[in-house]
């Protein structure tokens, strides 16, 4: 049984703080620029900045051979899923409280469990099914569905989690053969093309106003930083250690929403999110112990 090296957990915690700050900054910046840009335009400019950054890294480090095309179809499917989820996420953060968006985003791992048998051939065991059922209970508490509470924003946030789950599943499949740099390169390039097509569909692509340019830059940099920090943290410590730290994104963004946008702290959202988290966390602990017993 392998142990986490001494000092790795504090380092992972620091990386997770970077991830939490980045995700929160992206949400605030997304609201900031949404008055002048639609979600497709936001994704276009975010992806173009990503292409510039990742392309520069590829050229400067001389790692062009890593950018392979042998699994381009899988990259495209993965990025359509992510592009759809991210657009829905950017829409949701403009119309419902930030805490609600983040709470529903935490259902992503549950959807991934349900999609994994279809894409990766993984078995849907009864503990995973139970975790999904408990997580669904948490969704019901967060949304409290009724004709008065259901809204396009809630559906968008819930659907965004499904898009992110699909992205995670296909990313897991790609990591078996392709490097992280290769995945990031095709992520930014294909989503820049998708953003250009969708934003230009009506023949009118708005340029960001001068006051919105810093927000667009924050979105582009924060998106890359968030995923880099999260990936680095998972490389230092197991998911069973990292995930509780990631969950602090919810109270952080709830406080941000209260301070910047006068959004009330909804105890039902926090309770539902805690149940979603518990379902994910218990499943991760069980999977980790099973892998250790199997000597993986």
Automatic annotation (TrEMBL):
Q: Where are the transmembrane segments?
A: 12-32, 44-62, 88-112, 124-142, 154-171, 183-201, 213-237, 268-285
> What topology does it adopt in the membrane?
Multi-pass membrane protein
UniProt keyword annotation of Membrane present: yes
Provide a GO CC annotation, any one: membrane
The record's keywords, sorted A to Z, are: Membrane, Transmembrane, Transmembrane helix
Q: Where in the cell is it found?
A: Membrane
Q: Which domain of life is it from?
A: Bacteria
On whether Flavoprotein is a keyword of this UniProt record, the answer is no
Using the record's annotation, list all stretches that form the EamA domain. Answer: 11-143, 152-282
Which family, according to UniProt? Belongs to the drug/metabolite transporter (DMT) superfamily. 10 TMS drug/metabolite exporter (DME) (TC 2.A.7.3) family.
Q: What is this protein called?
A: DMT family transporter
Report the source organism. Answer: Alloyangia sp. H15
């Amino acid at each position: 049984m392998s142990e986490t090296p001494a000092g790795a957990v504090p380092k992972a915690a620091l990386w997770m703080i970077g991830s939490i700050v980045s995700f929160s900054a992206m949400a605030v910046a997304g609201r900031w620029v949404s008055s002048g840009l639609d979600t497709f335009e936001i994704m276009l400019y975010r992806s173009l900045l990503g292409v510039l950054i990742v392309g520069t890294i590829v050229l400067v480090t001389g790692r062009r051979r890593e950018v392979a095309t042998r699994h381009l179809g899988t990259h495209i499917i993965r990025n359509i899923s992510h592009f759809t989820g991210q657009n829905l996420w950017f829409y949701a953060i403009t119309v419902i409280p930030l805490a609600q968006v983040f709470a529903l985003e935490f259902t992503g791992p549950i959807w991934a469990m349900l999609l994994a048998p279809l894409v990766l051939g993984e078995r849907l065991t009864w503990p995973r099914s139970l975790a999904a059922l408990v997580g669904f209970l948490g969704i019901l508490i967060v949304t409290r569905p009724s004709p008065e509470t259901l809204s396009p924003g809630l559906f968008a946030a819930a659907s965004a989690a499904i898009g992110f789950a699909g992205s995670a599943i296909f990313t897991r499949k790609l990591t078996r053969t392709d490097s992280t740099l290769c995945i990031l390169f095709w992520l930014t390039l294909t989503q820049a093309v998708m953003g250009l097509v969708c934003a230009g569909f009506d023949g009118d692509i708005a340029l960001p106003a001068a006051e919105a340019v810093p927000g667009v830059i924050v979105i582009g940099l924060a998106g890359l930083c968030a995923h880099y920090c999260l990936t680095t943290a998972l490389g230092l410590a197991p998911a069973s250690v990292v995930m509780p730290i990631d969950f602090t994104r919810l109270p952080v963004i709830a406080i941000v929403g209260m301070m910047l946008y006068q959004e009330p702290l909804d105890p039902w959202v926090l309770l539902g999110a805690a149940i979603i988290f518990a379902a994910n966390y218990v499943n991760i602990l069980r999977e980790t112990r099973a892998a250790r017993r199997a000597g993986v």
